[in-house]
Amino acid sequence: MATQPILRYPHPVLKKLCHRVITIDNAIHDLIRDLLDTMREGPGSVGVAAPQIGVTLRVCVVDVSASRHGKDNNHGQLCMINPEITARSGTAVMREGCMSVPDYTGDVERATEITVRYDEPDGTERIFTATGFEAVAIQHEMDHLDGILFLDRIVSLKTGLFRRKNYR
Predict the structure, then answer these.
(1) Domain span including residue 117
(2) Number of folded domains in the chain?
(3) Does any domain span residue 94?
(4) What tens digit of pLDDT does each residue of 8-49 get?
(5) How far apart are CA 125 and CA 47, in angstroms?
(6) 79 annotated among ligand-binding-site residues
(7) What residues sit in the active site (predicted)?
(8) Would 75 be classed as within a structural domain?
């Protein structure tokens, strides 16, 4: 398919609650291809969610394997349909950025270990535990499906929001 333009904050679609996917059909497969293409083209991107390209469905992709933060601890390319976090533990504050908020980064507190359940593009259910940077990236993308941006989770607006110097 093709790389899609990323919606930028404050676009109203970014604040919408996304709908569950009822049927995994060719349209969903096309959406996943678009998400993967868009993620690969994004500067330093490790994930993208459907609402970021204007689609209010519960679909997102994550792949931290090429990132220096996730290269040693990851499950590879994840294409998640209707993802749900079923368990979480630990917490850490980590700096996050987002293609939909390209001019800022922020300190966000997230679980350091999550168990996630979702449907694969072929319809099979997958459940696994993610830790570290991969867990953070999954939580970030899943927040998009609920209309939540990392800006909504900044630990301190006074000391936890930073203007990005470079975005490539």
Answers:
(1) 12-163
(2) 1
(3) yes
(4) 999 999 999 999 999 999 999 999 999 999 999 998 899 999
(5) 20
(6) no
(7) 141
(8) yes
